[in-house]
Design brief:
alpha/beta, 15 helices, 31% helix, 23% strand
Length: 520
């Protein structure tokens, strides 16, 4: 291991090549910057103590870097930073994929999984240090090449999987002349995850759906999750040799969703590459120009690959294949993606968990201690800690809300989401015009047309035109539960790992969605 003293970089940043690098310091440190692995993983300045392992464990593959989830020392993917009493920070960041950073007492150390790599080291004011790190990443990995992010309406947060041809066509008409650039169809159009053919809810087909969107003088957007499949899919049943396995020959779990076990494709397998290329070309042939590819972490899970190479490097190669197959004229948004490997490979990246009509869910946030689940507070917390990525590509904070009919957020909480969209320069909503009042429609129009002057005034504070905005109310993490409440939380986590319990909650969710759809 290469070791240096903090004094060696206090006056000027350094780039050091090593497989393992440690920086020793003696100053009193008070906080650690934890950078989560993928879009939904926690990123935050935290205290130095142990953070409880988020639950249930069945979701670890699709929420965190499962290889390090039980590490009790402060740690994170590719980079970490220490804040000192004087307000300065020490940052250690990898300049390529497959690296992890730990803090152990007075030593900040990083390690690449395979060969030597470059480390960026710097000490000083937070904004200056992160800006220089982003600049170095851009030199090596690339930067965005599209000047402005489109303004998007998507179907997910109002209808979820309860979409069909009738309701989408009706909604597209009712959106009227709202200044959206893209109308994006989300999850619910496909036969199954893994089987990307149109289902019976869209009898006219996908090309007709794209044509309907384009008839409104907007681009057609589509959601897919191409790097994994549910167990019951024809893809998994017919091509088991395409999927990742571990050292014992067992399939690698990609988590649990859609009421089924998920499995990850081996993106280095030649037949998988050909299949992915054909899928992207098919989607473009249907007429979709804006592609949101989701659950992409599956391409970087640990496992034995056809091509022997580090997992994140393999994933980055896959993103390049997808980019080339869809064409440079498509707008490519990555979601559920490991962060650093996606830089330079896409136009935009989701940088936080999904939002929700709930500010905070007590069960998930306080009992299961899960900062990755869909909650507005979770989303704002992680997004505000990844704003430094904005010089590299478009950063997606997820949708903002305006309607109140199907929403429990307060006006102040909705305003924070809208302000975060201004800060990120990425505007989207999923609100149905069927639910919105005239005032809410007017507020949406103003939001989509506004381009305010943004000035950051502190770690979590901004000036938006002449307004002061503070995101601090969304940043706290709950305390670990002890005693009887701690025991109950452990029981809840155990139940959350049982398929039968997840099936039950999915049944309740599906019933609520059917009721919502039937009300329209």
């Amino acid at each position: 291991m290469t070791s240096i003293q903090l004094s060696e970089i206090q006056n000027k940043s350094k780039i050091i090549k090593a497989r393992e690098l440690a920086i020793e310091f003696t100053s009193t440190h008070i906080k650690y910057y934890r950078h989560g692995w993928q879009s939904w993983s926690l990123a935050s300045w935290t205290d130095l103590g142990f953070i409880p392992v988020q639950k249930p464990a069945i979701f670890h593959p699709l929420q965190v870097n499962a290889e390090y989830v039980n590490d009790q020392n402060p740690n994170g993917s590719w980079l970490g930073a220490v804040e000192f009493e004087d307000g300065n920070i020490l940052l250690l960041g990898a300049l390529s994929t497959d690296a992890h950073v730990h803090l152990v007492e007075n030593q900040l150390s990083g390690r690449f999984d395979a060969d030597d790599g470059e480390w960026f080291t710097a000490f000083g004011q937070e904004d200056v240090v992160f800006a220089e790190y982003a600049e170095q990443l851009g030199i090596r990995l690339g930067k965005l090449n599209k000047k402005e992010a489109p303004r998007i309406w998507c179907s997910w947060y109002s209808l979820y999987t309860a979409i069909d041809e009738e309701i989408l066509y009706k909604t597209f008409d009712m959106i009227g002349d709202q200044p959206f650039d893209v109308l994006q169809v989300d999850d619910g159009w496909q036969v199954k995850v893994g089987d990307w053919d149109v289902n019976q809810k869209f009898p006219s087909g996908m090309q007709a759906l794209a044509d309907k969107i384009k008839s409104t003088n907007r681009k057609a957007g589509l959601w897919l999750a191409p790097l994994l499949a549910v167990k019951s899919s024809k893809l998994f049943q017919g091509h088991a040799d395409w999927f990742l396995r571990d050292e014992r020959g067992h399939f690698v779990s990609a988590g649990f969703n859609w009421n089924e076990q998920l499995y990850a494709l081996d993106t280095t397998h030649p037949d998988v590459i050909s299949w992915l290329v054909a899928l992207m070309q098919q989607v473009r042939a249907w007429g979709f120009d804006y592609l949101k590819l989701d659950f992409l972490y599956a391409g970087a899970l640990q496992g034995k690959r056809y091509k022997n190479m580090p997992r994140e490097a393999a994933y980055r190669e896959c993103l390049q294949v997808l980019r080339e197959a869809m064409g440079s004229d498509a707008f490519f948004l990555t979601c559920g993606t490991p962060i650093l490997p996606a830089i330079g490979m896409c136009d935009a990246i989701r940088i936080g968990p999904d939002v929700s009509f709930e500010w905070e869910n007590y069960r998930n946030a306080h009992l299961l201690y899960n900062p990755s689940t869909p909650e507005t507070k979770n989303a704002i917390r992680t997004v505000t800690h990844r704003l430094w990525l904005g010089s590299l590509l478009h950063i997606d904070p997820d949708v903002a809300y305006f309607e109140s009919k199907e929403n429990s957020l307060t006006t102040e909480q909705k305003n924070l989401l809208q302000d975060l969209a201004y800060v990120c320069k990425f505007k989207a909503t999923s609100d149905l015009p069927q639910w919105m009042t005239k005032n809410e429609m007017d507020e949406l129009r103003l939001f989509l047309n506004s381009n305010p002057v943004i000035k950051q005034t502190g770690r979590y504070t901004f000036q938006i035109n002449d307004r002061k905005v503070d995101f601090t109310p969304a940043l706290s993490l709950p305390a670990a539960k002890t005693g009887l409440l701690g025991l109950f939380a452990s029981l809840l986590a155990w139940l959350g790992d049982r398929h039968i319990v997840l099936h039950f909650f999915r049944m309740l969710d599906d019933r609520a969605l059917r009721k919502r759809r039937n009300s329209l």
